[in-house]
Amino acid sequence: MNKFCTDTGFVSLNKKGEHLCGDHVEIISGDELTIAVLADGLGSGVKANILSTLTAKIISTMMANSMSIEDCVSAIAATLPICKVRQIAYSTFTIICIRNNIDAEIIHYDNPQVIFLRGGKYYHYSNTSEIMENKVIYKSRLKLREDDTFIAISDGVTHAGIGNVLNFGWQRENVVKFMEDIYEKDLTAKTICSILLNKCYSLYGGEPGDDATVCTLKIRRRQPVNLLIGPPSVPGDAHKMMSLFFSKEGKHIVCGGTTSDLAARHLGKNLVTGIPRYFDPQIPPAAAIEGVDLVTEGVITMSRVLEYAKDYVLNNENFAHWNYGKDGASQIARLLFTDATDINFYVGRAINPAHQNPNLPIGFSIKMRLIDELASCLKQMGKQIKVSYF
């Protein structure tokens, strides 16, 4: 594992009136290899969804098993069902393959060319073409740097606004200009997708005339974040738990009143509460301990973080709430969703009677299920997760 990692994310818009998206994204991610495939099926609706799903799954699985693009294209040609009307089996695709976070290969067939940003500015890269199964396949290879960003789009993005606010749609050069204007170094891959697709939705006037998908991959420096919640089930294990937690590299978050007292005592510092400031009336105010990056209340705050995480892995509609909020839940969300690449949870199993309140906005017995669900969402974001129980 090197000092970099690949942040991934995607968001789709369904064509107006369709319950299924005709585009499909498949991502296979590991320490040494990340493969993202964006496929766009012929037409829209169920048939297009089947075509794109088969294409993306076949290509990603075969390439993850070190098979060539020639084999992938042959398998697709032999597998995809034939459209009875058009007499073709048709799904365009874009493949981005990143090895060891230092080498990238881009392969695309009939999709808009991948937008590559370096330092937040468009970077032109060359490509070569080959004929495979009567299809023109374009290939490119690149050496990578920190913050290099790949943005793959389906043609529903470049069709946005056509015949409405734009005569010829949202041309690729206009998409490039938009991305350069909104780019910020701290934006995650998923957030970049959300911002771009929100613009598409606006250009469509809220009624998309085609399926539209954005898939982004971004090279990031690894950033660990450590979160401690709850005292240990055996009080005598508190010193061990705190020692392990504070010895970890990266930022440190402490959640819960009793946990904060233990952390302050371990560090020999004061727990500073000050005058309570409710930036959100439903989220208890944060506190402070010298040597700790963030100190918050426990279950209620983390429940809101879980809500944000579940939304993030879907369409990230609550981005503005947690990205700009000053309450404890928003601050945790920024640290976990935006800053962190590797997250270590230290979870105490001691039972707090307050967590048994059936009116709490979470459907679990105690904090254990909350952490499990949050860890699952964070894994879907591409984070490396480790959970230690005490």
Describe the structure in your own words.
There is one protein chain. The protein is an alpha+beta fold and 390 residues long. It contains eleven helices and 18 strands. α6 links the parallel β12 and β13. It is 33% helix and 27% strand. It folds into two domains: 218 residues, PPM-type phosphatase domain (Phosphatase 2c, domain 1, 4-Layer Sandwich); 166 residues, no CATH class.
CATH homolog superfamily of the largest domain: PPM-type phosphatase domain
Q: What percentage of residues falls in helices of 4 or more residues? A: 25-40%
The CATH architecture category of the largest domain equals 4-Layer Sandwich
The mean pLDDT is: 90
Number of helices: 11
| Rg on CA atoms, Å | 23 Å
Biggest beta sheet summary: 6 strands, antiparallel
Distance between the termini: 27 Å
Keywords, separated by commas or semicolons:
390 residues, alpha+beta, Phosphatase 2c, domain 1, 2 domains, 6-stranded antiparallel beta sheet, 5-stranded antiparallel beta sheet, 11 helices, 18 strands, elongated
Summarize the structure in short.
By secondary structure, the protein is an alpha+beta fold. 33% of the residues lie in helices and 27% in strands.
Topology:
Blueprint: E1 4-13, E2 23-29, E3 33-41, H1 45-64, H2 69-79, E4 91-99, E5 103-109, E6 115-118, E7 121-122, E8 128-132, E9 135-143, E10 149-153, H3 155-158, H4 172-182, H5 189-203, E11 212-221, E12 224-229, H6 238-247, E13 251-255, H7 257-267, E14 271-272, E15 288-289, E16 294-296, H8 299-312, H9 319-324, H10 328-339, E17 342-347, H11 367-380, E18 384-389
Parallel strand pairs: 12-13, 12-17, 13-16, 17-18
Antiparallel strand pairs: 1-11, 2-3, 3-4, 4-5, 5-9, 6-7, 6-10, 8-9, 10-11, 14-15
